[in-house]
Amino acid sequence: MKFASLASSLLLAASVSAHATFQEFWVGSTDEVGTCVRLPVSNSPVTSVTSNDIACNAGASASPGLCTVAAGGQVSVEMHQQPGDRTCTTEAIGGNHDGPVIVYMAKVDDASTAVGSSAKWFKVAELGLISIDVWGTDSLNSNCGKFTFTIPSCIPAGQYLIRAEVIALHVAGSVGGAQFYMSCYTVTVTGGGSASPATVSFPGAYSATDPGILFDLYGGYTSYTIPGPAVFTCSGSTSGVTSTSSSRASSSSSTSRASSTSSSSRASSSSSTRASSSTSASSGGSPLYGPERRLVLQERQVFSIYAI
């Protein structure tokens, strides 16, 4: 009994310490900190794809303001395990929480008050399985929590929500096991055009049995299907950042995605000014990845011990 109790405690500690939130925002090289994020009430995940919380997380606070971004410009979302902790030596999301990074946008009348579960979303960036056991979350960890992408140049000017998401797959081998970590940012887009992207809703875009959500991380996989629609591009082609070992959901185009999104690295400094640099997949560069995988089967082993 004591052994089972200890195993349960270890599982809880390992799981909670690895939870994370998207909490900062960059416009180009300008650090906007948390001035335009709806910060969730905790770093715990959403696990139900049918809950309204799947849109912008549970109990998210109102954002302090709006960030101004140019259509066609680069922005970055930033994830860390604890609020206000931007230490680059700590993984952005640890504990073998492997999975894709996905970003959506939704045009709204008033980003300050718009309800995420009522918004119409289109996907603008994604990074899934890069190579075996190397995921979009590894790119976050090696880039001090940052994921950089481009605002489509053809979308209309106005106010938008940006939904940044990680889907952690470490216990996704059974229905309801996948963990969704998301935050919504409030922005004003300037410039742009008149494109009208196809949209999806949250809840509604995902099913608990989608192949990219019900997924055995320990099952000898060779490919991964990123959930949701194809990435919207102004040219109409299917785009995104992925490796050849990732595949598109059957409901979307099977066309190979061009690598149009960037992974960006933030230099760690004791100075209050944070420098950033980008490695673009489309330019032939290869993102660097952090320390080798640690405790790959940690949570699965603890579950087994608990079952005993």
From TrEMBL:
Which cellular component terms (GO) are annotated to the entry? Answer: extracellular region
Enzyme superclass (EC):
oxidoreductase
Q: Where are the transmembrane segments?
A: none
Q: Report the residue ranges that make up the Auxiliary Activity family 9 catalytic domain in this protein.
A: 19-220
- Residue ranges, compositional bias (Low complexity): 243-286
Which Gene Ontology terms cover its molecular function?
cellulase activity; cellulose binding; metal ion binding; monooxygenase activity
| Biological process, per Gene Ontology | cellulose catabolic process
Q: So what does this thing catalyse?
A: [(1->4)-beta-D-glucosyl]n+m + reduced acceptor + O2 = 4-dehydro-beta-D-glucosyl-[(1->4)-beta-D-glucosyl]n-1 + [(1->4)-beta-D-glucosyl]m + acceptor + H2O
InterPro entries on file: AA9, AA9_LPMO
Q: Record's CDD domains?
A: LPMO_AA9
Q: What is its main location?
A: secreted
User: Where in the sequence is the signal peptide annotated?
Assistant: 1-18
Do the record's keywords include Aminoacyl-tRNA synthetase?
no
List locations, semicolon-separated. Secreted
Q: What is its EC number?
A: 1.14.99.56
| Name this polypeptide is given | AA9 family lytic polysaccharide monooxygenase
> What broad taxonomic lineage does this protein's source fall under?
Eukaryota, Fungi, Dikarya, Basidiomycota, Agaricomycotina
